[in-house]
Design a protein that fits this description.
Layout (H helix, E strand, L loop, with lengths): L1 H5 L8 H20 L1 H8 L9
Length: 52
Amino acid sequence: MIDTVLHTGSEHPDLLWILVPAFLSFLAGLGVMTYGDRIRAWVRPDSSRTAE
């Protein structure tokens, strides 16, 4: 029972293929969050005008 609780999956044969994409996705999310306004202005340059 205690072995099941302590098992972290560190012996998984494809652990590197799981952790690297997860970490890169996390960094991409941080980048989008940080530069979201700049990205939005680059994608839609007309967003600065208000609807009349």
